[in-house]
Amino acid sequence: MRRKTAKESPGFFHIKMMWSLWILLGTVLSVDGYVVPDLHKRLSHGHQLKIYLPKSAVKLEFTPAAEPLKTYLYWDRGSRATRGKVSGTGTDRSWYLDKVTYKDQGTYVQRDYWNKEISSLKVAVTTRREYTKCVVGEELHISLEGIDQADATLSFSGANANVTLVHDGAVVAQDLPDYWNRVKTLSTKISIQNVNTSDVGYYTLKDTRDRVVAIVRMELTDKHENEAGNPLMALLLLLGIPASICFCCRKRIFKNKSPDTTAIQLDNPETLHPPPGYNMPGGGVSPGPGVPGGYPQVYPPPNPGMPGQPQWTGPPPQPGYAPVMYSAPSGKEEIKIENMSPADPLLAHPPPQVPPTHL
């Protein structure tokens, strides 16, 4: 009887299984204790925020920077987003905000089916800065960039003035002579009409918490920059030049081929003659349609036994008009002629009788 080795003993298998369990447990604990690094993104006020959602993500949570103890559920798989929009499906799914504001500053966390964190993004919103040029008499537009009209406050700082034009969505510049009936507030922008030299300066837009949303610098110009330097116009020119060259070459090729066609037509030996006039006695017989030409015209001699036909004295025929042809006798008359005896005279009228001469 063979003796069992140490590797074949039951205790060895138990130890091996224990080691396998410890390795598996350590792997699970290391994965569970893995901390997802925070991603950071800085966006100007009013820009779009877009977050990619992998297949494993089932929810998106948001913790505001101003309220770190609160968490809001923005999106849950199988339901509509409470804020923002979700586009795409599968591996091409994303959640986005059209225009971020200071309220959107904070941390965005994605979680999987077991409520484990799989992604973390910290978003910071900064002041939007803009530089624009206007021609005297034009209209200056300042976008609200996502804030409500009732929360907007606009002030102006120039060389000779430092005034508030809009406060909490209401126009307060009606008492200023330079801005009377020139400032208009809309749902998405504030407009200053008929700009002039006194409007050159800085326009500062703030929200209800006195946070600077945008700073717009405006200057005057004689005319706007020429649009000829636009890349789109340059692309159109590049596409138009080859097309013009091809058109010219094609036109020249057809022009060179046209004399050969004329020469072939002139080589035709067939000569066309106009039909004879109606006032000509014994007019010729023209070939009818479909009869090949090229044969000399034959005109029958006048019959001395038949009375003369009346001549046409009307207006000349129109171009392309086919005259009425002289038709031969009917078949019945031909049969009658064939049945005539040789003794019958050939002419329709007998020759005149000559009286005998008496000597």
What does this structure look like?
This protein has 359 residues and is an alpha+beta fold. Among the domains are: 39-126, Immunoglobulins (Immunoglobulin-like, Sandwich), CATH 2.60.40; 128-223, Immunoglobulin-like (Sandwich). It has helices at 10-32, 231-266, 331-338; strands at 39-44, 49-53, 59-64, 72-76, 85-87, 93-97, 106-111, 117-126, 128-134, 140-143, 153-158, 162-167, 170-171, 183-185, 189-192, 201-206, 212-220. It has a 6-stranded mixed β-sheet with strand order 9-17-16-11-12-13, with no helix packed on it. A 5-stranded mixed β-sheet has the order 1-8-7-3-4, with no helix packed on it. A 3-stranded antiparallel β-sheet has the order 2-6-5, with no helix packed on it.
CA gyration radius, whole angstroms: 53 Å
Indicate the CATH topology of the domain at 128-223.
Immunoglobulin-like
Q: Helicity range of the residues?
A: 10-25%
Structural class: alpha+beta
Provide the low-confidence segments as ranges.
Answer: 29-34, 261-268, 331-338
Strand order of the largest sheet: 9-17-16-11-12-13
Mean pLDDT over the residues: 74
Major sheet: 6 strands, mixed
The termini sit apart by 184 Å
Quick take:
Among the domains are: 88 residues, Sandwich (Immunoglobulin-like); 96 residues, Immunoglobulin-like (Sandwich).
